[in-house]
Specification:
Strand 2 and strand 3 form a beta hairpin. The protein has a 3-stranded antiparallel sheet. Helix 1 crosses helix 2. It has one domain. With 64 residues, it is an alpha+beta fold.
């Protein structure tokens, strides 16, 4: 599992649609990755957001 990157005040928070588009997967897959704790989540009200830095760290971990 990738380490959770530190969230900076300037880090973008992506919704499921943007995260899915960047990764080239469906929104359901993004939710599965979050549920498996592979993508950290930041709650903004009732909405779940994924920090951009976490998405980049996930991709880097997958590449090796």
């Amino acid at each position: 599992m990738p380490s959770t990157p530190k969230l900076s005040p300037t880090d973008e928070l992506w919704d499921d649609e943007r995260t899915a588009a960047f990764l080239g997967v469906s929104r359901v897959t993004v939710r599965r990755l979050r549920r498996k704790k592979l993508l950290p989540t930041v709650k903004v009200g009732a909405a779940a957001r994924t920090p951009r830095s976490a998405v980049l760290a996930y991709v880097a971990a997958q590449i090796g």
